[in-house]
Write a structure and sequence with these properties.
The structure holds two protein chains of two kinds. Helix content of chain A is about 0%, strand content about 55%. Chain A is mainly β. In chain A, a hairpin with a 2-residue loop joins strand 5 and strand 6. The chains are: A mainly beta, B mainly beta. Chains A and B meet through strand 5, strand 9 and strand 10 of A and strand 6, strand 10 and strand 11 of B.
Chain lengths: ~110, ~110
């Protein structure tokens, strides 16, 4: 069976510090991978998605970047965090097949102070 | 533009009563529709999806959803609500490789 991991689970960082959040998927190959941000426990904002190693699509220009160094690894980064980067970050994966379900990781709670 | 609407921010229902969480969509072509549930500080959990076939889709935890093409709706339903169903519910439609989510509906089930 497939499993998706995210770490850390929670993170408190000062403004201006760098960020690296990691997401890995087990039990599948060549998944589509996604990063979302959820603010204030409501709507989901798609930040980045990737359909293959080194292929990153950005949905919203902002203070973040993403990379996919390996087939089942997706990393969300920032060089300098802003207060507005606080939120709940969710990683998700799906098989690249029409109608396939997107499965979510447990999330990372980021608080920027 | 392709979109999903969840018109209710919150739905309140008494335990044991039926519940409905509404979702309407706007997409070109055949829609692939999904429902997810989110408990506090957790990731989204998949409940059910409509791809093709029967308009009534059954999913996890006793939930079901009815696809209505003429009304472009995909409402989530459960015959008898439980207090443990209290959570945030998201409707989504797949567009190419992405999901477009609604804004979410908070379901509160009172004992």
């Amino acid at each position: 069976s497939q499993t998706i991991h995210q770490w850390p689970a929670t993170l408190v960082q000062p403004v201006g510090s760098p960020l690296s959040l990691e997401c890995t998927v087990e039990g599948t190959s060549n998944p589509n991978l996604y990063w979302y941000r959820q603010a204030a426990g409501r709507g989901l904002q798609l930040l980045f998605y990737s359909v293959g190693i080194g292929q990153i699509s950005s949905e919203v220009p902002q203070n973040l970047s993403a990379s996919r160094p390996q087939d089942r690894q997706f990393i969300l980064s920032s060089k300098k965090l802003l207060l507005s980067d606080s939120g709940f970050y969710l990683c998700a994966w799906t098989r690249d097949t029409t109608g396939e379900t997107q499965y979510f990781g447990p999330g990372t709670r980021l608080l920027v102070l | 533009a392709q979109s999903v609407a969840q018109p209710e921010d919150q739905v309140n229902v008494a335990e044991g009563n039926p519940l409905t969480v509404k979702c309407t969509y706007s997409v070109s072509g055949n829609p692939y529709l999904f429902w997810y549930v989110q408990y506090p500080n957790r990731g989204l959990q998949f409940l059910l999806k409509y791809i093709t076939g029967d308009n009534l889709v059954k999913g996890s935890y006793g939930f079901e959803a009815e696809f209505n093409k003429s009304q472009t709706s995909f409402h989530l339903k459960k015959p008898s609500a439980l207090v443990s169903d209290s959570a945030l519910y998201f409707c989504a439609v797949r567009v190419q490789v992405k999901l477009i989510f609604g804004t979410g509906t908070r379901l509160q089930v009172f004992p």
